[in-house]
């Protein structure tokens, strides 16, 4: 992509009303635009990142055995009344349409997926089954001041699994933990499994937490036995670990995923049973598993940035290479254009800064945008047919022969 | 994919309250599930089709020069008040949130994209620019009885282009027609460009219409000069073509896309101007271009089906090959399993009917689901190491050597 044609521009202006680092950097770099509090438009660079995260999530959910579906955001009131959550969920957006029909905008989809799966499951032979979607959720958050970390509209992957008994659910639940850790690792996040409040039927749910100073959550971390707890379930705020007795420390943290053993909470509400081998009706056991791709995007920015800008992991960078032509020497521009074409042809995702702006602005913007590799072509390197290569996460500069560049990045 | 594990089942039951053929077949085949009038869940087979259509649309929009973005569905009232459409659009879903903040669910996105693009365009050098999104729209349709043809929530591709003057807009508008015809051709639809009512600034808009008996629109078709008109703009209902004077015929039709020269209608409302070469402020000219991928999916079913079921074009079939094992002979099952593995390994998208059901049901379901190629393995063909191949759109049956099958479909 030629940067002169790219929709979305960098700006030095710090956005008003944005206190979070992720919103500040994503807006300043032209990755997203703020429509209103908690509601963002993804510009081309930001959308590329979001799609890469979604693709990673999709791959790991498929490996886990999930089948992708796509449920609506517009959902009928009746389903929410059946579970009492029409009144219980305070962030539920409600609306009314033609014929006084009442709807909720899905803030989560247990109320839709449970009766849906019920339609296709009769016997024990139809279980287990796991379905997931990557879809936009709506939550009327009172405070939406954390950029992509807490949106009123945001991207969510929600998987739901259905089982014959608690053992099968527990087994799948354990497997899901590994799938989740894989997702976060691939996204460059060091996520920790943390016990959190569980709801009606299970003692705990589990959260995936990334320890970082800008986090809103507080986690009691036991570095001895490795079992961590969210502040919300810590009794008497004790620093002594309830499992091994050693001292714990408190870490600030961002929640990037959570999983719940819902057991029969929703299947009972929708009268969802199956016939076992003996012909007897049995309750279906259910779990739910959430990751917010947009929240992951915000979290990665919170964790991976410096005072110059963002530092994208390769796996989710919008482009791998930022090719920057410095100066207005015709030969430099021609050489850069030719290298750009060669990189594109070799399948290397390249952003080419061909804009008519000062060198300083180009270098600052490259730092702000934070692609993994920066290649600089200037009159200084031109004669020797070299290009300067610098990784965003390192200060070392290497000189590379232009003829060898595209091979370096071809996998 | 093994059909025994596939989420979503075929049914012989004709869905209640569905009068359209597309909804009947898509529900009976397990491609979609109806949540309520005009609101559907995409099950795995249906979602695969929808994504293939979206991918075709995306490719053609990129070729046209569009850059993909993603705008929110939740939009602030103010933007709609500025254009007077808060009151004018009768299908707008409106809702209220925390702090009495009022929102509309996007039924279209001129009100969002115009101020967005304004932020990044100052000078003539920033024009032209075209952005598009593939995103879900919401419309509170009074009658939502046409399946995927008229949804209350539906998939939409909306592209918006911005230009320095009317000539540049007109030039892009003409190019968009070809991009649209490419999309429909690739989706197996024979679309015709039809003049329709234009709105404020341009005499006509243009619709892309597929002539078919189940269509809701009536088109005055001139087979002499090729200029067709929507009934809504035909003066005195005359069958005489206003362009060439020859007789026209009337065709029932489904609208699958539409394009508008909006000119300055929205840019004026948002005070969106640019500075020309002489330093003078000029109004920005705008066009908008819509295709509904979910509507395309419904239209293809309306056009491509017979009394046994759907007939998917290769380009959007959820799988290319339906491998069907008949009978419960262990050898047949082993051979089918081995061929399935080989097809998968060769990259052939294959649905393998490994279910323990009667041959008749398998064959009926294969016709209903409508994949392009059906391969049958049975004890009849087993000994000779043959497989029966039949195309969904033909009645001819061919015998193919099993060893040669996977090569047939590898591109």
TrEMBL record, chains A, B:
GO terms for biological process: prolyl-tRNA aminoacylation. One of its GO terms (cellular component) is cytosol. SUPFAM superfamilies: Class II aaRS ABD-related, Class II aaRS and biotin synthetases. Residues 38-313 form the Aminoacyl-transfer RNA synthetases class-II family profile domain. It catalyses: tRNA(Pro) + L-proline + ATP = L-prolyl-tRNA(Pro) + AMP + diphosphate. Keywords: Aminoacyl-tRNA synthetase, ATP-binding, Ligase, Nucleotide-binding, Protein biosynthesis. One of its GO terms (molecular function) is proline-tRNA ligase activity. Its EC number is 6.1.1.15. It comes from the Bacteria. The keyword Isomerase does not apply. PANTHER family: MITOCHONDRIAL RIBOSOME PROTEIN L39/PROLYL-TRNA LIGASE FAMILY MEMBER (PTHR42753), PROLINE--TRNA LIGASE (PTHR42753:SF2). This is Proline--tRNA ligase.
């Amino acid at each position: 992509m030629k940067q002169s044609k790219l929709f979305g521009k960098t700006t030095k202006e710090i956005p008003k009303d944005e206190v979070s680092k992720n919103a500040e950097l994503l807006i300043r770099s032209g990755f997203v635009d703020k429509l209103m509090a908690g509601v963002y438009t993804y510009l081309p660079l930001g959308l590329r990142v979001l799609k890469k995260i979604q693709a990673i999530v999709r791959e790991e959910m498929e490996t886990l055995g999930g089948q992708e579906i796509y449920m609506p955001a517009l959902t009928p009131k009746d389903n929410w009344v059946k579970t009492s959550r029409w009144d219980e969920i305070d962030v539920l957006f409600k609306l009314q349409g033609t014929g006084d029909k009442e709807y909720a905008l899905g803030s989560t989809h247990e109320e839709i997926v449970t009766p849906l799966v019920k339609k296709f499951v009769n016997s024990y032979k139809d279980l287990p089954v796991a379905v997931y979607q990557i879809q936009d959720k709506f939550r009327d958050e009172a405070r939406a001041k954390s950029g992509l970390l807490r949106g009123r509209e945001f991207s969510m992957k929600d998987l739901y699994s259905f089982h014959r008994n608690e053992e099968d659910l527990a087994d799948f639940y354990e497997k899901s933990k590994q799938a989740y850790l894989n997702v976060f690792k691939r996204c460059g996040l060091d996520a920790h499994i943390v016990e959190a409040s569980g709801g009606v039927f299970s003692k705990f749910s589990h959260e995936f937490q990334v320890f970082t100073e800008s986090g809103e959550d507080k986690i009691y971390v036991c570095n001895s036995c490795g079992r961590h707890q969210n502040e919300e379930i810590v009794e008497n705020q004790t620093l002594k670990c309830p499992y091994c007795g050693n001292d714990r420390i408190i870490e600030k943290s961002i929640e990037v995923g959570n999983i719940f053993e819902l057991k029969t909470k929703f299947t009972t509400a929708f009268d969802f049973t199956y016939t076992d081998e003996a012909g007897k009706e049995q309750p279906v056991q259910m779990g739910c598993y959430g990751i917010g791709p947009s929240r992951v995007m915000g979290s990665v920015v919170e964790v991976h940035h410096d005072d110059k800008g963002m530092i994208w992991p390769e796996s989710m960078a919008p482009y791998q290479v930022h090719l920057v032509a410095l100066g207005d020497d015709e030969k430099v521009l021609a050489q850069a254009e030719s290298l750009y074409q060669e990189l594109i042809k070799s399948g290397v995702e390249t952003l080419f800064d061909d804009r008519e702006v000062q060198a300083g602005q180009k270098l600052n913007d490259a730092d702000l945008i934070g692609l993994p590799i920066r290649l600089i072509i200037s009159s200084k390197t031109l004669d020797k047919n070299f290009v300067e290569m610098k990784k965003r996460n390192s200060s070392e500069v290497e000189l590379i022969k232009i003829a060898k560049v595209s091979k370096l990045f071809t996998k």
